[in-house]
Amino acid sequence: MSLAAVLEDEPQHPGQDGLAHDEADIKPPSLLLAMADPGYALFEMAMLPTLVPLTQMAPSGDGHPVLVLPGFMGDDRSTAVLRRFLSQLGYQTHKWDLGRNFGPLSIGPEGELLSVRLMKIFRQSRRKVSVVGWSLGGIMARELAKAMPNQVRQVITLGSPFGGNPRATNVARLFERVTGQSVEDREDAMMIEGMKTPPPGIPTTSIFTKRDGVVAWQNCLEQPSPLTDNIEVRTSHIGLGLNGPTLFAVGDRLACSESDWTPFDRSGWRRFVYPSSGHGI
């Protein structure tokens, strides 16, 4: 999986810069949001005990395996809270076991190491695997599902910029320095063109926040289809894996029947917790 396949998308109607005009207008989050993101994450961590009632309201799991992928430069420690929560709901929760997420340097040029990890879990459990990915991990989760549709049950992404302007992030330069590759590398045009398209036939949910200080939230929205959904939460990018409403939404999505997936229900009390959901963002 090349960096172009991980971070970039080829629009249908490109302008002079290679992006659709509305996509080219999407900019990275403001400096204010970027500076506030770490502090907000610490606040989320401190608030976790008070959110226990909300997370306890999440439906129990059916025991199927869930693979959790960290964000850029994150490792399995960064997803510990999320994985512990899912294990408490009754899922077979799995680390990604590939160290820190340095993109293709971690998963292999074609994502082969991640594919091996998924296949191992699938064969051990003899059940399809749901894949939850944070930021870059979510982009990888979507591409993994496209490559291995017979092994993936559903995909849930947290603050993952799989569409739009690849420069609309505050970590683009850092990513290039770490990996030695450009976010505008277009050598794999076929894969770039399909980046925005969700995995065919696999339920895919994007959980995003408009307070994101790392990536532009507009690039985190799934295209309308019977098997896609968008759920907005109020948190920071770094705080997504520590946020009570996010944890509840992940648990709610994983509890959907494999044969009867339905979009997120935002009625009742949920409308006060989740600012928006669905495709009418």
Question: Could you walk me through the main structural features you see in this protein, from its secondary elements to its overall organization?
Answer:
By secondary structure, the protein is an alpha/beta fold. It has a single domain (3-273), classed as Alpha/Beta hydrolase fold, catalytic domain (Rossmann fold). The protein has twelve helices and six strands. It has helices at 3-7, 21-24, 31-47, 52-56, 80-89, 104-107, 112-125, 136-147, 172-179, 189-193, 244-254, 270-273, and strands at residues 65-69, 92-94, 129-134, 152-158, 204-208, 228-232. Strand 1, helix 5 (80-89) and strand 2 form a beta-alpha-beta unit. It is globular. Residues 1-18 and 186-192 have low confidence and may be disordered.
Reading off the top of the CATH hierarchy, the class is best stated as: Alpha Beta
| CATH homologous superfamily grouping | Alpha/Beta hydrolase fold, catalytic domain
Examine the secondary-structure arrangement and name the CATH architecture.
Answer: 3-Layer(aba) Sandwich
- Overall average pLDDT: 84
Structural class: alpha/beta
The amount of beta strand, in percent, is: 5-15%
Number of domains: 1
Cα end-to-end separation: 30 Å
